[in-house]
Amino acid sequence: MSSVKIEFKDLSKRYKDVLAVSNFSAQVQSGRVTGFLGPNGAGKSTALRCLLGLVNPTGGGAEINGGSYSQLVDPIHKVGAVLDSRGFHPGLTAKQNLKIMASASDINFSRIDEVLELVDLASAANKRTKGFSLGMKQRLSLAIAMLGDPEILILDEPANGLDPLGIVWLREFLQKLAGEGRTILVSSHQLAEMQNTVSDVLIINKGVLVAQGTIKEICKGRSLEEAFLELTLRKSA
Amino acid sequence: MSALLKSELRKLIYLRANWLLLLWSGIFAALGTVAPILILNSDNGPGRGAFSGTETPEGINGVFANASGGYLFALILGILIMTNEYRHGTAVGTFLVTPKRSTVLVAKLIAASLAGLVIQLFSFIFAITSGFIALTFFEPHAPVPAELLFKVFRASAISGLVLGIVGVGLGALVKNQIAAVTGAVIWTLIVEGLVVAFVESIGKYLPAGAIFGLVDVDFGENDFNFSIENYLSPGPATLVLLGYAALFSLIAMRTTLRRDLD
């Protein structure tokens, strides 16, 4: 029996003259992989940052497990997030970056080796991250997100900049996590990849929710790309 | 809080740039003691007639008062502690682990304060040792009283604790690392130095003027009419510095708590 894990409630965010997100309401069910799709500038990243308490909404709100992110006790054990391929110091090794995060939340350092293995980065554990490729940076971001072994994962464009091998690796990685019953909300432009990975879809355009449902309900026999283009272009017209 | 503080201290220890900064603080402070000894003892040096020589207690005071001069590096380290988070995008991870930003800020302020103290104690020891070594080449010289060393030590410790905090506040306010560090260097080495030296009525309330008052040693008669009498005594000077720490802590809190992390 699934329950609502993440809920956007009339979320709005305005930056001066730009309304990035407008009365956005949507739900993400537990144990599902939900694709969060939308064109560039649609408001995906802003909505996710509002959800994680990094950006202050100008209206409404977003909840995880029935409360705001800031109300979560020990949030790193509940939610893991990848928001971009930065988020670690280039002058430090992968392991040192993970140690800093782990020590801030009293996580045993033995977990660091586990997450580095999990993302296939064990061989680069002691290398400074300034020499990392974009793919390695994405893996390290995922390792940081997995540090607290969270039940919910929020990933913003995790496939950005990945080569085909990296994309295949990411797909298998997400499928493995989904198989463990974790709730995953992932934004992406890789519609073909999303079709193979997600069970539910949220589509946002110009800050407004344009569609929400299972992938079958959204696609109705079409490819996800066709459905996405029709929904976003129709709403734009 | 203790876990967060450990994490902040780990950041400080792991970064090689911070160790280089520590080394530079020692070299900078050592120049502050060694250079005046060389100038005051040169036959035709420009400083020869301006200040008392090292054969007088006032001359020795003037030399060793500079041993607290590494506080610029405590300020820079405080700035780096804050601006590194924005420059490298680590603020996102930091605030995801600890969404209560005020707790993160308190940990950063404590870490910066401790780091500032370490920088100032290191540079004090480096400068004093270098000064003693340099003096051996210019015998005879007036004795270096323990009270003088204690006063400079006190000024070093308090300024280190305070300037680390001021740096965090400045970094939170400006965010751009290069702009914040450049501004701090220009302010400390040029603007503040000139105001403290030539407009004592204002300069004594600036951080450098307050640190100067905290050192509290007599330089005697000199060509620049530069006298400790014109500056705050150690008690009020300490209060002024603590006021700066409180002000910049408040700035750090207000800017960081409200800011969107895009």
The pLDDT mean of chain B sits at 90
CATH fold description of the domain at 1-73 and 191-237 in chain A: Rossmann fold
Q: What global shape of chain B is seen?
A: elongated
Radius of gyration of chain A, Cα only, in angstroms?
18 Å
Helix content of chain A: 25-40%
- The CATH class of the domain at 1-73 and 191-237 in chain A is identified as Alpha Beta
User: What gap, in angstroms, lies between the N and C termini of chain A?
Assistant: 39 Å
So, the CATH homologous superfamily of the domain at 1-73 and 191-237 in chain A? Answer: P-loop containing nucleotide triphosphate hydrolases
What do the pLDDT scores of chain A average to?
91
The oligomeric status of these chains comes to heterodimer
User: Can you write the helix and strand succession of chain B as a string?
Assistant: HHHHHHHHHHH
Characterize the biggest β-sheet of chain A. 6 strands, mixed
- Biggest sheet details of chain B: none
Q: Which residues of chain B sit in consecutive blocks of at least 5 with pLDDT less than 50? A: none
Q: Under the CATH scheme, which architecture of the domain at 1-73 and 191-237 in chain A would be assigned?
A: 3-Layer(aba) Sandwich
Key descriptive features of the protein:
heterodimer, A: alpha/beta, Rossmann fold, 6-stranded mixed β-sheet, 3-stranded antiparallel β-sheet, 9 strands, globular, B: 262 residues, mainly alpha, 11 helices, elongated, transmembrane (chain B), membrane (chain B)
Helix and strand layout, with pairings?
The complex is a heterodimer of chains A (237) and B (262).
Chain A: E1 4-15, E2 18-29, E3 33-37, H1 44-51, E4 59-64, E5 79-82, H2 94-104, H3 110-118, H4 134-146, E6 152-156, H5 164-179, E7 183-187, H6 191-197, E8 200-205, E9 208-214, H7 215-219, H8 224-236
Parallel strand pairs in A: 3-7, 3-8, 5-6, 6-7
Antiparallel strand pairs in A: 1-2, 1-4, 8-9
Helix pairs in contact in A: 2-3, 3-4
Chain B: H1 2-14, H2 16-40, H3 57-64, H4 71-87, H5 90-97, H6 101-135, H7 146-174, H8 177-198, H9 200-203, H10 207-215, H11 234-258
